[in-house]
Fold:
Amino acid sequence: MLYVLLLVFSGSALGFLAMHNLISRKNVDLSKRANAILSGPAPDIRERELSEPLSKRMLKPLVHRVALHTSRWLPSEKEALLAKKIEMAGRPGGFGPREFTALKFIVTVSSICMMLLLETLFTLPRQKWLLLTVLAGVAGWYLPGFYLRQKILERKSEVEKTLPDILDLLTVSVEAGMGFDGALLKVVDKGKGILAGEFLQVLHHCKMGKPRREALRDMAERMGVDDLSTFTGSVIQAEQLGLGLGNVLRLQSEQMRQKRRQRAEESAMKAPVKMMIPMVLFIFPTIFVVLLGPAVINILNAFSK
Structure:
């Protein structure tokens, strides 16, 4: 039974890692991509598709085909909520809410099929195999959602860490005489990460005719980070009231840096509490065995005589 559980969990872990590597293979320099799109010739669609990994070329058509049949079972309210979560996670794999629901069906069916395959290799009672199959199906259904929540938390954490440095660069650029759009373009050219990509998307929306305040509000709603919402609200209010943008950016940078310091101090204060669990479960018992073991042996030998 132990070997079966280890095999199931190792297979699930390998499948999760494969899906993670498939979806998160997007570490591309955003400035080079923007320059290639704006200045270079349009790439051939067939060459671009052939350059993708074989696993991705096989998974995407399967997901889209399953999404055609499962989309009718997805309510509109849940689809809108799932679309918002996918946007907050950065659209991993380029999947929409229907494709993500289809991916959950695929992972669930694959987990159940894997358990049925293992049933032919090992001899266990039927009831235990049924319980393990149900657990594998439930884990396969909730595993993509867990991955999506982890991506949201990772993006929020990265935005909270990099926002003060981005605001410093914006402040220096604005105080040097550049406009806000020019400062955003400087951040896109010099910076890397999630915020650089979001600011590039804001610039694209502004070039297509969307007002800047709407583009900034859409970015704040898409990210779902309180610090970024505070920053965009301050910039929009400064533009509406005619305030100096440099002073507003400098004040926001100081506040964000102070919040980052407070979060670091909070994490440091939580560390001793989190360390108590492994200490109580693993370290203290070994210490007691080493210290009290010889004494217990001597006491037992003394009473046995």
Q: What stands out?
A: Residues 159-260 form a domain with the Receptor-associated Protein fold (CATH 1.20.81). The radius of gyration is 27 Å. The CA atoms of residues 173 and 182 lie 8 Å apart.
